[in-house]
Amino acid sequence: MTVAQPPTLTDVVAVIEDRYPPAWAEDWDRVGLVLGEPEAGVRKILCVVDCVPETVDEAVAVGADLIVSHHPLLLRGVSSVAPTTYKGRIVHRLIRAGIGLYVAHTNADVANPGVSDALAARFGLVDVRPLRPAVGAAAGGGRGHGRIGRLPQSTTLAEFTGLAARVLPPTVWGVRVAGTPGRKITTVAVSGGAGDSFLADAVAAGVDVYLTADLRHHPASEFVAEGGPALLDAAHWATERPWLDDLAAHLGGTLGVEAVVSDLDTDPWTLHATSTSEEQSR
Predict the structure, then answer these.
(1) Mean pLDDT (whole number) for 80-92
(2) What are the residue ranges of CATH 3.40.1390.30 in the chain?
């Protein structure tokens, strides 16, 4: 009996780059193959948001041959990957374990389907379109940053916040909200990851609420003061984790390999306490 050979790393890269071409990435981004022998066989892939020591341990534990990470490990230039450095230790651990590393970041953000499509699907949004349509190499085809869509049934901001808390992966950060609880919500904008650079796009689109991550104090305050949509600020990891399911399904279905999704919460915030005054606590 002939045993089918697994796809090579080169084969896997070709499938990823067909769906998320590196040319679609922002100029500042660093995507593509980081580590791995091109002709090495790939039987199991671990899909993660962050390549950190904990997800590398997970890859070793599940017997993965390749990590596909959303966030780049080496986004900024380094002069050394010595094992005495944080990133160097990760690189050395991966090499010793024979695990490759591939990154799909802003090219996956703008893809259709991409990161924000998976986020929009968690809320059941319909009539979905880009929040900021892509330009350059990625232009056309419904591609772009973020997504705008319509809820199947209108709700209130308070109810929508509860929905967000239920459908997003749980984190200590949870969901913060700016807006009147009883505000009617029908049209929704979402953007996986840091999204305050798209606040103006959400205003221009006239949506009722904008959900993203990493909103800053001053832009959010000015945005709300000027009558913009309500804001939901979720954990960065939680807004991008849904995409891993789509990625794993595509890789597994196309290549016939086992693609595993990491549910390890790599959000850096590990504790949350609601502020109370001394008077309230008495």
Answers:
(1) 95
(2) 9-107, 111-237
| Side chain identity at residue 168, one-letter code | L
Q: Any idea which residue has 């290549």 for tokens?
A: 255
Which residues have CB under 8 Å from 101's CB, separation 6+? Answer: 33, 34, 35, 36, 51, 66, 67, 69, 73, 94
* 3-state SS, residue 252: helix
pLDDT digits (tens, 9 = 90+) for 137-184: 999 999 999 999 999 999 999 999 999 999 999 999 999 999 999 999
Which CATH superfamily, name and number, covers 111-237? NIF3 (NGG1p interacting factor 3)-like (3.40.1390.30)
Tell me if 17 sits within 8 A of 232, measured CB to CB. no
Report the alpha-carbon distance of residue 264 to residue 49 in Å, rounded.
Answer: 9
pLDDT digits (tens, 9 = 90+) for 231-241: 999 999 999 99
Contact indicator for 134, 110 with CB cutoff of 8 Å = yes
For residue 259, give the 3-state DSSP assignment. Answer: strand
Extract the runs of DSSP E, i.e. beta strands, from 222-266: 230-234, 258-261
pLDDT at position 274, please? 86
CB neighbour list of residue 57: distance below 8 Å, 6 or more residues apart: none
> Half-sphere exposure of 270 toward its Cβ, with a 13 Å CA cutoff?
3
Q: Can you give the pTM of this predicted structure?
A: 0.95
9-107 has which CATH code? 3.40.1390.30
Q: What pLDDT does 2 receive?
A: 59
